[in-house]
C-alpha cells in the first residue's frame, strides 16, 4: 500500500525507554531500575495534585470541560495574560503539531537549531515542509538570522533552554533577534525548561507576557511534564497574541485534555512551593554531576535544565555506555542519533544520582 511520500523521510521518535521494557528485556526487578532518561521530576508531583485527582476519579464517565476554564484561569493568573491568549494541548507537543498544521505546508521552510528537540523536525515532515538547520550546536542567533534572510522560513523554533544540550539563550539577545524578524514568520519560543533556567540565571528568563506584548508573531510554549512532575498527564500550553491562538483552535480536537489532567495541572500550578523545592534540589544535585565530570575528565555542558549532557572522549562510546548502564538497570539517553558522542542524564534524587556515579565510574574508560 502507498502512503504519503513525505513520510518516508521520518525517523520514528524514540522516547526514553520505559521501566517496563527493561523489566522485560533484562529481567531486572522494577524496584532496581532507575530512569533518568526523560527529564521527569524525580520527586514526582505535588501531593496536593494527588489528593485533588483522587477526589475526582469518579468523574471519568463524563467528557471533560472543553472550555478548560479552571486551568485557563490558573494559567492566565500565573502568567498575567488573558484566557484568549492561551491554548492547551496534550503536552506542548500537541501545540507544536497545531502550529505546524496552521502555518507550514508542502515546500515551506522551518528553521531549527542543528541539535534540538526532535519533534520539530518530525511534525514539519508531517506536512511535507522542509527543515533548515543551523551549523552550530548551541543556538547562534547570527547564524539563525543569516539563514532567515536567505530562506525566509514560515516558522523559526528557538528552544531555550535547549533539549538535549541544556544550554540557554540570553533573554535580551533573543528579544533583539525577534525584533528583526518579519511579522509573517512565526517564532516559537519553547520554554519547556524555562522554570529551571529562570531559577539559575535571571538573564535567561523569558515570560510569555513580555514576548506576546512586544511581538505579534511569537508563541511561547510551556509544559507540565518537567518541573511540575506531570509527564504522565500530558498537559502543555501555548501563549500568544489572540490572532494566533484563534487559528490554532481550528485544529484542536474536542476534549483533547482529560478531566483528571486538567485538574492535576490546575492544582500543580497553585503549589509553587513544590516547584521551588524541585528546582533548588535539582541544581544542588547538579553540582555533584559537575564534580563527577571533572573527576572523570569528561566534558559537561553548562545546563539550565533538569538534565546534564556528558560529552565523552574518544575512549568511550555513548551507545555502548548507555547500553551497559541499561543492562544494570540505569536508563539514560544516548545522543548518538543527534550526532553527538554524549549521553543525557536527568538529574535524579540524591540516591539515584549516587547510583549513576557508581555505575558510570565503573564503566568509563
Ligand atoms: C519535554 C519537552 C516538550 C514537551 O513535552 P510535553 O510532555 O509534550 O509537554 C517540549 N519541548 C521540549 C524541548 C521538551 O524537552
Instruction: Sum up the overall morphology in one term.
Output: globular
- CATH domain class of the largest domain: Alpha Beta
Distance from first to last alpha carbon: 48 Å
Oligomer: single chain
The distinct ligands, each listed once, are:
pyridoxal-5'-phosphate
Kindly name the structural category: alpha/beta
Kindly state the percentage of residues in helix.
40-55%
CATH superfamily of the largest domain, by name, is Type I PLP-dependent aspartate aminotransferase-like (Major domain)
CATH architecture of the largest domain: 3-Layer(aba) Sandwich
Radius of gyration: 20 Å
The overall strand count is 13
Q: Please indicate the percent range of residues in DSSP E strands (runs of 2 or more).
A: 5-15%
Largest sheet: 7 strands, mixed
Mean pLDDT: 96
The order of strands across the largest sheet is 2-8-7-6-5-3-4
Number of helical stretches of at least 4 residues:
14
**CATH fold-type name of the largest domain:** Aspartate Aminotransferase, domain 2
Number of domains: 2
Helix/strand layout:
Blueprint (H helix, E strand, L loop, with lengths): L18 H8 L7 E2 L11 H9 L13 H11 L6 E4 L2 H12 L5 E4 L5 H9 L3 E4 L7 H11 L3 E5 L11 H9 L6 E5 L3 H7 L7 H7 L3 E6 L12 E5 L1 H8 L9 H12 L1 H25 L2 E2 L6 E5 L6 H10 L2 E2 L1 E2 L7 E5 L3 H14 L2
Parallel strand pairs: 1-11, 3-4, 3-5, 5-6, 6-7
Antiparallel strand pairs: 2-8, 7-8, 9-10, 10-13, 12-13
Helix pairs in contact: 2-11, 3-11, 4-5, 12-14
The structure holds pyridoxal-5'-phosphate.
Amino acid at each position: 500500500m502507498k502512503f504519503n511520500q513525505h513520510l518516508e523521510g521520518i525517523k520514528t521518535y524514540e522516547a526514553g525507554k520505559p521501566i517496563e521494557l527493561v523489566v522485560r528485556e533484562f529481567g531486572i526487578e522494577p524496584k532496581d531500575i532507575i530512569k533518568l532518561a526523560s527529564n521527569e521530576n524525580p520527586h514526582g508531583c505535588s501531593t496536593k495534585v494527588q489528593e485533588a485527582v483522587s477526589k475526582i476519579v469518579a468523574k471519568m464517565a463524563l467528557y471533560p470541560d472543553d472550555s478548560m476554564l479552571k486551568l485557563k484561569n490558573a494559567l492566565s493568573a500565573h502568567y498575567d495574560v488573558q484566557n484568549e491568549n492561551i491554548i492547551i494541548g496534550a503536552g506542548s507537543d500537541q501545540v507544536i503539531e497545531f502550529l505546524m498544521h496552521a502555518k507550514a505546508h508542502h515546500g515551506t521552510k522551518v528553521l531549527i537549531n542543528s541539535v534540538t528537540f526532535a519533534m520539530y523536525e518530525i511534525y514539519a515532515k508531517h506536512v511535507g515542509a522542509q527543515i533548515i538547520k543551523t551549523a552550530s550546536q548551541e543556538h547562534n542567533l547570527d547564524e539563525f538570522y543569516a539563514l532567515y534572510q536567505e530562506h525566509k522560513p514560515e516558522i523559526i523554533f528557538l528552544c531555550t533552554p535547549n533539549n538535549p544540550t541544556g544550554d540557554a539563550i540570553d533573554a535580551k539577545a533573543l528579544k533583539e533577534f525577534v525584533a528583526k524578524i518579519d511579522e509573517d514568520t512565526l517564532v516559537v519560543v519553547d520554554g519547556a525548561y524555562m522554570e529551571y533556567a529562570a531559577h539559575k540565571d535571571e538573564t535567561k528568563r523569558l515570560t510569555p507576557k513580555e514576548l506576546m506584548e512586544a511581538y505579534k508573531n511569537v508563541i511561547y510554549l510551556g509544559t507540565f511534564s518537567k518541573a511540575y512532575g506531570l509527564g504522565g498527564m500530558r498537559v502543555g500550553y501555548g501563549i500568544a497574541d489572540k490572532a494566533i491562538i484563534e487559528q490554532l483552535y481550528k485544529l484542536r480536537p474536542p476534549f483533547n485534555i482529560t478531566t483528571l489532567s486538567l485538574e492535576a495541572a490546575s492544582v500543580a500550578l497553585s503549589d509553587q512551593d513544590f516547584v521551588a523545592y524541585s528546582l533548588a534540589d535539582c541544581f544542588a544535585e547538579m553540582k555533584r554531576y559537575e564534580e563527577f565530570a571533572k573527576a572523570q575528565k569528561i566534558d559537561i555542558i553548562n545546563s539550565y535544565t533538569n538534565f546534564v549532557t556528558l560529552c565523552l572522549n574518544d575512549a568511550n562510546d555513548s551507545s555502548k555506555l548507555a547500553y551497559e548502564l541499561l543492562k544494570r538497570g540505569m536508563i539514560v539517553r544516548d545522543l548518538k542519533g543527534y550526532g553527538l558522542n554524549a549521553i543525557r542524564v536527568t538529574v535524579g534524587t540524591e540516591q539515584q544520582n549516587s547510583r549513576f556515579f557508581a555505575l558510570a565510574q565503573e564503566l568509563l574508560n
